[in-house]
Amino acid sequence: MSDMSESLLQNRWTEYQRLLEVCASYAALVRLAEMDNILSQEGATWPISHEWALIVQKETISDEMYRKALAEAEQNVSRLKRMLSVGTNFTYEEMLLAITLRVELQLLAELLLKRRGAIEFTPDLADEDLREVSGYSQNVSAFRSAKAAAKRNWGISIRSSWFE
After folding, report:
1. What are phi and psi of 117, to 5 degrees?
2. Which end of the chain is more exposed for a tag (fewer CB within 10 A), N or C?
3. What SS3 string covers 46-63?
4. Contact at 8 Å (CB) between 130 and 82?
5. What is residue 94's three-state secondary structure?
6. Are the beta carbons of 147 and 97 closer than 8 angstroms?
7. Cβ–Cβ contacts within 10 Å for residue 112, how many?
8. Would the pLDDT of 79 be above 80?
9. How many CA atoms lie within 13 A of 146 on its CB side?
10. Whole-number Å distance between alpha carbons of 70 and 112
């Protein structure tokens, strides 16, 4: 793991802790999930990745934090579903928001599945709608550009089927 990766993980950890302090459970857990996603990818070198993996794995998710994050995740699924149902022509910004929300939901779902053995929300509820909308001829270019921008904007190497 390079010094750059170490720095990115440290920045995510700092942001995670800041979000915890302001009781932003959903956003905090997404940061933790980003770290977990990076550390679970093949090619992470030891010992730095091992040290970070231990830090992330030791972090507990309280029941209250879980409930708050779950409520916001469910709201985001509904928001995404509503957004995708209002028309057929979407702007670059709308596609960027849709992809970002969907990847966040995926990251959170993966983390909660690892930690709790199950997820209590349906992150893929709007997937069919997103695939359909992204396939409309008037949206193809905006979707491709938004997908590339979302991947770039993340600033770290997140593994997601939505970035492929």
Report:
1. 80, -5
2. C
3. CCHHHHHHHHHHHCCCCH
4. no
5. helix
6. no
7. 22
8. yes
9. 22
10. 10
Mean pLDDT across 22-38? 96
Q: Which two tokens stand for residue 142?
A: 């905006």
Mean per-residue pLDDT for 94-120?
95
Q: Read off the tokens for 36.
A: 């977990």
* Run of H or E residues at 114: helix 92-116
Q: Tell me the percentage of the chain whose pLDDT exceeds 70.
A: 95
Tokens of residue 149, six digits:
């921008």
Among 158, 136, 146, 150, smallest CA distance to 41 is for 158
Structural tokens at position 84: 């995708």
CA distance 95 to 140: 10
Is residue 6 pLDDT above 90, yes or no? Answer: no
**Residue 63, token pair as written in the block:** 């029941």
* Cα Rg of the chain, angstroms: 16
**Per-residue confidence (pLDDT) for residue 136, from 0 to 100:** 96
